[in-house]
Amino acid sequence: MWKPDRSSKKPIYQQITEFMERRISYGEFPAGSLLPSERKLADHLGVNRSTVVQAYEELRASGLVESAKGSGTRVSKHKWGIVPKQTPNWKQYVEGGTFLPNLPFIRRIREEIRKGNTPIDFASGELSTDLFPNGIVRDILQKQPFQEQLGYDDPQGFAPLRESLVTFLDQHHQIHSTDSSILITSGSQQSLYLITQCLLSPGDAVAIEDPSYCYSLPMFQSAGLRLFRLPMDENGINPEDIIPLYRQHRIRMIFVNPNYQNPTGSVMAPDRRVRLLEIATELGIPIVEDDPFTLTAFDGNPPPTLKSLDTTGNVLYIGSLSKIGASGLRIGWLIAPQAVVNRLMDARQQMDFGLSTIPQWVANHFIKDGHFENQIIRLRKALFHKRNEMIQGLEQIMSDSITFTPPQGGLNMWCKINRQVDDFKLLGEAIKREVLFVPGSVYGSDHNCIRLSFARPKLEEIIPGLNRLNEAIKIILHT
Predict the structure, then answer these.
(1) What does the radius of gyration of the chain's CA atoms come to, in whole angstroms?
(2) Terminus of the chain with fewer CB atoms < 10 Å: N or C?
């Protein structure tokens, strides 16, 4: 995230030259590697292309880099006695391995956010900074005496936090559990990763919703799993679709997000929940319930979780503080049978020897002392206002090009553009206007669907952001 210092007496091109020299000497750009194009580096640093051209000329003059027409600028292979045989083929390593990179759409969106250009962000599934409980966390750190040991913690998670979660989940979700059935993770993403790596094998078939947040996670493909999709309507998946899938492909696990589903915002109908549990029990298939949004119900009456209806232990339940508390704490939890907890705990201990005690200690006070309940009340009100602002903007600005169904909770608005569009080009046009969204194809949906998060932008940014997005859509529809 380095930027040239415009207040310095040193010319900007020289600052860039020295910056690139350091990156080359530190091995960030090994011998033979391709440097960013002049235009791309200029955009990233916020300078004129001619300034980068001048910096690259300095690097060429020193012999550090070489340029060839049509093949870009590369780090010299012979400077300081470096010879090609001594240089690893990093491209081959980077493209190898079994853990796949994020989807190109996701990488491009995150790259725009990292540039620091502060676009209006309808893409991030995260709260705006004013909705984080920073003051509460600061008070906890200042007022509560920290007396815990700073060695490796219990690999299952900080015991007082697990005990507080037992009470919280019973009161707010009617989920009855014990502290021995809870594994603390660094967010729901780690819970999903542990499940796909430890409880399933390459070639196993799993069922996911269509569209689904799971579809956007390369970890499923990295684990060698075969994904089969369950079509959704406004009432969620149809559980009866599972039976033929099981007969044909021997489905090993079902992944669902029943409440305010990501990305559609739908809520699974009560009768379908009951039937889903019945089918899973009959077939002996575990259900993974990812539940980040239940407590955001705008009317204050959250729908029941699948886990609260589960009487046979078929449901593995995933929750976290990330979406509705503080994502920076990196606290999530998984409720599972003891044998599953032990298996995943062992794997997680191999990865990181357990989570840091400090954020778990903070999270425990956040939950135990009632701060989380207050955060939820405050959050519902703020998200409700933001959702209404987005609804009003969509109706006033984009009613002729987009249809949508207002969600009753969660962070996202699922929209359908009335004509087919090239979503890659649409995202490009939106980025030019400094507004971001997530194309529906990221979640396995049609190319004319988009997900707009109303949680991340400030209230006053929502209408301007929709205006910018509308301009991008008009450009694409008329080209």
Answers:
(1) 25
(2) N
